[in-house]
């Protein structure tokens, strides 16, 4: 992977993060101002395809910085990220969202 491509992928990750930040902030605000009894919090295991500890750390930070989610733990073998989610009516969709947004971009940066 060239340096220019790495820079491009990093900028793209930044835009993806900002998009997720805005979308999640709006969703959390609606949940807080609405009926919080409808929330379905969950702790989810996100299987990881990243190869580096830097990639896993960056993913965990992106998840924690996004409103409504918090990274709790990374397995010793770096294959699973445990995440607390404020509202997970469809846990599989939440896991896929994390993988499709942040992890996909980070895998492209890893090369």
UniProtKB/TrEMBL annotation:
Pfam families referenced in this protein's UniProt entry, alphabetically: MNHE
Database matches in InterPro entries: Cation_antiport_E (IPR002758)
Keyword Glycoprotein among UniProt keywords: no
Subcellular location: Cell membrane
Membrane topology qualifier: Multi-pass membrane protein
Keyword Phosphoprotein: no
Coiled coil: none
Record keywords: Cell membrane, Membrane, Transmembrane, Transmembrane helix
Top-level lineage group: Bacteria
Family: Belongs to the CPA3 antiporters (TC 2.A.63) subunit E family.
Name the record gives this protein: Na+/H+ antiporter subunit E
Organism encoding this protein: Peteryoungia desertarenae
């Amino acid at each position: 992977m060239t340096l220019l491509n790495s820079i491009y992928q990093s900028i793209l990750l930044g835009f993806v993060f900002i998009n997720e930040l805005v979308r999640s902030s709006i969703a959390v605000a609606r949940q807080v101002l609405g009926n919080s009894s409808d929330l379905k919090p969950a702790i989810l295991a996100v299987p990881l395809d990243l190869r580096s500890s830097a990639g896993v750390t960056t993913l965990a930070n992106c998840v924690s910085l996004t409103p409504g989610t918090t990274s709790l733990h990374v397995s010793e073998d770096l294959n699973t990220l445990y995440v607390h989610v404020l509202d997970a009516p469809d846990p599989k969709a939440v896991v896929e969202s994390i993988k499709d947004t942040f992890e996909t971009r980070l895998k492209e940066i890893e090369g």
